[in-house]
Amino acid sequence: MTSFVGTSGYQYPAWRGTFYPEKLATAKMLSFYAEQFRTSEINYSFHRIPSPKTLEGWFQSTPDGFRFGLKAPQKITHWSKHKDCADTLNYFLGVIADLGPKLGPILFQLPPTLKMDLALLTDFLATFPENLQPAFEFRHGSWFDDSIFSLFQKHNVALCINESSDFAAPQIATANFGYLRLRREDYQPADIDRWAKFVEAQLGQWKETFVYFKHEESGIGPKLAKQMIERLGK
Which of 60, 113, 129, 199 is deepest in the core (most CB within 10 A)? Predict the structure, then answer.
């Protein structure tokens, strides 16, 4: 199993002095980040579909083997709520294909008010390309149902295992890759060890694991990611 560990985003001026050198130019942040981590979860794509120029910049600023996790556009997940969004989805997938081997999983983060709708996701996944790595983050507890897990297993879709101070998804593997979003800011070494053991326990099922720590101003995210990398020995 190959582990990709990083943070949700990388372009944070507040990280200067704790992670980035004080005078590092914003344009050089990604290349500096990619010297230490092999993945980053990109929130930019949630708000707007990146241009080919932007994707080329990301590609050129990172080494071979780096993987970008991309949030699906809110036009799909929040505005359309996965209905009648084929044109937007196909355009998005066509654009991000320019990342080639550096394209990682695609996170569909559903709004917290959207309740379980098996038919909705069944229709959405019916035509989803099989060569990609979709992951779904649910923020309404009704989605954590065996029928959803079975659907994900059928289509090799990862249940995003997210943990925050007030919400936690079940630790269930539904695909041949894993997607973890660890959002708490108070993780201790024992917590990192607990999550590392969980990742290691999926060795028989997961070929790749993507772990993203929260982005926040104190710069603790990169520190936690480094602890996880050291613990996993990757």
Answer: 199
